[in-house]
From TrEMBL:
Protein name: Protein-methionine-sulfoxide reductase catalytic subunit MsrP
Cofactor note: Binds 1 Mo-molybdopterin (Mo-MPT) cofactor per subunit.
UniProt cross-references to Gene3D superfamilies, sorted A to Z: Oxidoreductase, molybdopterin-binding domain
SUPFAM superfamilies for this protein: Oxidoreductase molybdopterin-binding domain
PANTHER family noted in UniProt: PROTEIN-METHIONINE-SULFOXIDE REDUCTASE, PROTEIN-METHIONINE-SULFOXIDE REDUCTASE CATALYTIC SUBUNIT MSRP
UniProt function note: Part of the MsrPQ system that repairs oxidized periplasmic proteins containing methionine sulfoxide residues (Met-O), using respiratory chain electrons. Thus protects these proteins from oxidative-stress damage caused by reactive species of oxygen and chlorine generated by the host defense mechanisms. MsrPQ is essential for the maintenance of envelope integrity under bleach stress, rescuing a wide series of structurally unrelated periplasmic proteins from methionine oxidation.
Cofactor (UniProt): Mo-molybdopterin
Keyword vocabulary terms for this entry: Metal-binding, Molybdenum, Oxidoreductase, Signal
InterPro entries in the record: MsrP, OxRdtase_Mopterin-bd_dom, OxRdtase_Mopterin-bd_sf, TAT_signal
Amino acid sequence: MAGRWKNDLTWADVTPKAAWLNRRQIMAGAGAVSLLAAAGGVRAATGAAASPYSTDEEQNSFEDITGFNNYYEFGTGKEDPARYAHMLTTDGWQVEIGGLVDTPGTWGMEDILKGTSLEQRIYRLRCVEGWSMVIPWVGFELADLLNRVGVQPSAKYVAFQTALRPEEMPGTRARVLDWPYVEGLRLDEAMNPLTILATGLYDEPMPKQNGAPIRLVVPWKYGFKSIKSIVRITLTEEQPPTSWNKAIPREYGFYSNVNPEVDHPRWSQATERRIGSGFFAKRMPTEMFNGYGEEVASLYAGMDLKANF
Ligand SMILES: Nc1nc2c(c(=O)[nH]1)N[C@H]1C(S)=C(S)[C@@H](COP(=O)(O)O)O[C@H]1N2
Ligand SMILES: [Mo]
């Protein structure tokens, strides 16, 4: 396994020089929150957040973000992904983009990143289980990629699929979920500027336990919507099936917007525990749409959010 790990994609492989420079310029110019100086490897804290969409709340540590994960393909324990995700080979990663698009095809990571400038987005992540983190993602808007492939007028949804490799993903040898992990968004949700495809966090390429080499991040929805290690994106006319909804439909809806007023059938969603703050410390109120209502509430105007949970 060590050999494979070594041959995997590096930050330089997945990041065209121009995009990398561009990102560094953006970060330096705007005063990034944390910048791993390329030469010295020193983490320098500088001023304000790089994106107007970023929160200035205290960020979770790299250790929290990469040590406490949900990635059931590697096991259901919070420490299983950190322990086993190194088995995933990400070299030569390809994403198949198809369905109702003008130019269906298979994209290598280089093609996806070519012509895209990466930016930092510091988002809250609220897991449906009642914990949360603040994560400085690096990525680009999903809308950029969808516009490049050309979404046809009949498309109404976007479906996503995670890799399924039982030899590399020990968790998939148990039928915890109906593998592969699949997720979906309504097209307007997918096109919202908050919705990103992330390829890194802090100043690292995406750690495998966080969904290398490319994963979705939809910050106003419960964490399970933010599907990891994507191999397929399909534009559809019908609402696509989603893994947790298929598994337990009365507990997990298609929308799964963070909503403190709609409890999970087995627990309250009114509050959350911010990871890293101690088990009893810092239980905090959960915000409607995870605090992103200004950007996304209009997407659900007139909808009954209790029925469409
Ligand atoms: N393929 C896949 N994607 C997944 C999951 C998973 O088990 N498999 N877990 C989800 C859940 S429940 C959460 S809370 C987030 C966690 O992301 P993180 O580990 O990067 O914090 O990933 C989501 N994406
Ligand atoms: Mo989650």
